[in-house]
Amino acid sequence: MSLLEIRNVSYTYQSQYQKTEALKNVSLVFEPGTVYAVTGKSGSGKTTLLSLMAGLDLPGSGEVLCEGESTAKMDLQKYRREKAAVIYQSFRLLPLLTAAENIMFPMELNGMNAKDARKAALKLMRRVALSKEYADRYPTMLSGGEQQRVAIARALAMNTKILLADEPTGNLDSANSENIMNILVNLAHEEGYCVIIVTHDSSIAAASDCVIRMNDGEVVS
């Protein structure tokens, strides 16, 4: 059984003036231990696909299956907490919380006490190559690359096995982009995560195990 499967999925945006077919009968299979890059020009359906895999919406037709179960039959909030974590281009760190507190936040939401959550957060920071000295710094005190590492650690704190990354290097220079990609590749290859990256960056695609190219809502290769 695959970890995540997209089965004959279509999705249409309907506005007052027009209808847009964002996805057209898309089928894909994603396995643990693998880095996938989803590429294509703007409007090709990449972001819509990511939002469906993240449980932010349901397909118009077809199914998104996680470990064989359709997201349509799940509590989507629980799915997002327990199955699929998202890493954003803009980091989306909470500005009034320190780096450690940002990482602690999902653990505390799930009932972990603050002492244990901080201990776990410091361990997660080490996994993304951030030393303890960064723990009590606020996001504005961190570089873009450091903020993205905190965002990855926060995603890991959710203890999911699916990591969905939306242009995770889009706001970073080439050196930091390479560092972030190395972290994501290691998480897949060494710890068994299924990492799915939506990207325009050809170097990210080149470093991935599998490249999925989309055009006009369809998978073309």
Contiguous low-pLDDT stretches (5 residues minimum) are none
Task: Give the N-terminus to C-terminus distance in angstroms.
Answer: 23 Å
H/E series: EEEHEEHEHHHEHEHEE
Total number of strands: 10
Q: Biggest sheet, open or closed, and with what strands and sense?
A: 6 strands, mixed
Structural class: alpha/beta
Query: Reading side by side through the largest sheet, how are the strands ordered?
Result: 6-7-8-3-9-10
Mean pLDDT across all amino acids: 94
- Binned, the helix content reads 25-40%
Q: Classify the oligomer.
A: single chain
Radius of gyration, CA atoms, in whole angstroms: 17 Å
Form type? globular
Share of β-strand residues:
25-35%
Number of helices: 7
Structure overview:
By secondary structure, this protein is of the alpha/beta class. Helix content is 35%, strand content 27%. It is globular. It starts with a strand and ends with a strand. The mean pLDDT is 94. It contains seven helices and ten strands. Helix 4 crosses helix 5 (144-157). It has a six-stranded mixed sheet with strand order 6-7-8-3-9-10, with helices on both faces. A four-stranded antiparallel sheet has the order 2-1-4-5.
